[in-house]
């Protein structure tokens, strides 16, 4: 970003739209002065830090009152950005909020770039890189558990773990350095190699534990792409409604890139499911389902998890068999629905076609079997349970995962080098590379492009 690092920036920090209140945030050396220029009330330059002050925003050019406001004054360094921060709480409403922002911008502040407040928090040492990313994850968190993971990360759990790894690597590198100064002793050389090998194995093992959490982490973060499929009338719409109904509080409709793609998120036992292709299921006249199998094929290609419904009150049809065959290599749960009706389906055949997949019996209209379905879903993805993962630290961020993989590769090189009898100072280079890669996670070593790319993903005002 081309802008100087401590000019005064401003943005609307609350979601744009009709809300109870809106907040315009200003940060930088001149934050207080800028606010004072458009504010009538106490002298903000004289009020104590961390106070909230009643008053009015006035357009200095026309002397017209714009809104009644509360202005928070927070002086550096105990602020989010570690700079002087002003937050103008106004009554909300797009018009007033935007006018206040315009005034702030005409009277000395510059529009903040996306993520720039958090970038400053990072640059001023308040947050490390993985914590800054956690801020972003928090904004997007979809379930309680993903919220918790992001909070832990914000709390610095992952950073602590990474720093610990780096310290251990540095210790061994220092030890190696000392030993290299006495090359004439074969015994020392042997000791050094042994030490390097032990440490590399230990660190690799710890990195792999972290990487194991990544799969779960990704699910928590992005939602598990889930397709509900089955021939017409088996109960897909009923299942969808039941899932959505149980979880009204956190259901969000996210309009996709094209008009007819709707993603709906639903939280099942802590697993955020991203239900895909629900548009077809929602279609009440079920016109779309005429092309049943074809449509299902598409949905199941994109899915991580398939919920395949079978009607227990009718015999298996060819369409059922086709769907069972088409999903046999997928993570799937077979839902044997309508168990309140007399059983007609050939259970022996179904079992055979189901293979190793779980079969859950439900009567969706009577709300039976839904708990078992939820348990099965969370069991499939959190075998050991989220709570029990290492110190509750979970890697959820794609950039972190990539770096951990590279660090793991570097350690492989260390170990291969040792096995091939490579000189210690060459092995040392790979060990150092591992140390640097880990440092990129916390931002202890970083590059400017990375920063820009990262912070530009934030929404404005953060
Ligand atoms: P879809 O075509 O797969 O979406 O199926 P729907 O959800 O629209 O359901 C088709 C019909 O089956 C509706 O009349 C539902 O009320 C009924 N239905 C769904 N689940 C059950 C169930 O568990 N038991 C019974 N008896 N009927 C069900
Ligand atoms: Zn339907």
UniProtKB/TrEMBL annotation:
UniProt KW keywords: Cytoplasm, GTP-binding, Hydrolase, Magnesium, Metal-binding, Nucleotide-binding, Potassium, tRNA processing
Protein residues bound to K(+): 233, 252, 254, 257
Cofactor descriptive note: Binds 1 potassium ion per subunit.
EC numbers, comma separated: 3.6.-.-
Enzyme class: hydrolase
Sites where the protein binds Mg(2+): 237, 258
The keyword Manganese appears for this protein: no
Record domain TrmE-type G: where: 223-382
InterPro entries noted in UniProt: AAA+_ATPase, G_TrmE, GTP-bd, GTP-bd_TrmE_N, GTPase_MnmE, MnmE_dom2, MnmE_helical, P-loop_NTPase
Function comment: Exhibits a very high intrinsic GTPase hydrolysis rate. Involved in the addition of a carboxymethylaminomethyl (cmnm) group at the wobble position (U34) of certain tRNAs, forming tRNA-cmnm(5)s(2)U34.
The protein's assembly and partners: Homodimer. Heterotetramer of two MnmE and two MnmG subunits.
PANTHER family: TRNA MODIFICATION GTPASE GTPBP3, TRNA MODIFICATION GTPASE GTPBP3, MITOCHONDRIAL
Name of the protein this chain belongs to: tRNA modification GTPase MnmE
Organism: Limosilactobacillus walteri
């Amino acid at each position: 970003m081309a802008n100087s690092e401590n000019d005064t920036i401003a943005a609307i920090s609350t979601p744009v739209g009709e809300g109870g209140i809106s907040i315009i945030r200003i940060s930088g050396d001149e934050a207080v002065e800028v606010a004072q220029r458009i504010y009538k009330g106490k002298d903000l330059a004289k009020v104590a830090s961390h106070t909230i002050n009643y008053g009015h925003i006035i357009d200095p050019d026309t002397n017209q009152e714009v809104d009644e406001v509360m202005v928070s004054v927070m002086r550096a360094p105990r602020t989010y950005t570690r700079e002087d921060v002003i937050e103008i709480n106004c009554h909300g409403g797009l018009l007033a909020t935007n006018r206040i922002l315009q005034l702030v911008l005409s009277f000395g502040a510059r529009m903040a770039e996306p993520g720039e407040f958090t970038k400053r928090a990072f640059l001023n040492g308040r947050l490390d890189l993985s914590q800054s990313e956690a801020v972003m994850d928090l904004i997007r968190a979809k379930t309680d558990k993903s919220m918790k993971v992001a909070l832990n990360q914000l709390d610095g759990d992952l950073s602590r773990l990474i720093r610990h790894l780096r310290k251990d690597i540095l210790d061994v590198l220092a030890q190696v350095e000392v030993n290299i100064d006495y090359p004439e002793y074969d015994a020392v050389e042997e000791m050094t190699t042994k030490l390097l090998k032990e440490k590399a194995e230990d660190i690799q093992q710890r990195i792999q534990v972290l990487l194991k959490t990544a799969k779960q982490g990704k699910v928590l973060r992005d939602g598990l792409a889930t397709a509900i499929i089955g021939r017409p009338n088996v109960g897909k719409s009923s299942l969808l409604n039941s899932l959505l109904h149980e979880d009204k509080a956190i259901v969000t409709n996210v309009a996709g890139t094209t008009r007819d793609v709707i993603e709906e998120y639903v939280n099942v036992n802590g697993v955020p499911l991203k239900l895909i292709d629900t548009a077809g299921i929602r279609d009440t006249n079920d016109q779309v389902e005429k092309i049943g199998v074809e449509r299902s094929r598409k949905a199941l290609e994109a899915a991580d998890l398939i919920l395949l419904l079978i009607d227990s009150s009718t015999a298996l049809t060819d369409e059922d068999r086709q769907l069972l065959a088409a999903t046999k290599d997928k993570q799937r749960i077979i839902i044997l629905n309508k168990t309140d009706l007399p059983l007609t389906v050939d259970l022996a055949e179904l079992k055979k076609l189901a293979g190793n997949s779980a079969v859950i019996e439900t009567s969706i209209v009577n709300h039976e079997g839904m708990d078992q379905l939820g348990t099965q879903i969370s069991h499939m993805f959190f075998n050991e349970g989220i709570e029990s993962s290492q110190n509750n630290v979970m890697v959820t961020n794609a950039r972190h995962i990539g770096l951990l993989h590279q660090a793991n590769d570097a350690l492989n090189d260390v170990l291969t080098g040792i096995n091939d009898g490579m000189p210690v100072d060459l092995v040392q280079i790979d060990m150092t590379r591992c140390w640097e890669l880990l440092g990129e996670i916390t931002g202890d070593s970083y590059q400017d492009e990375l920063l820009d790319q990262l912070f530009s993903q934030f929404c404005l005002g953060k």
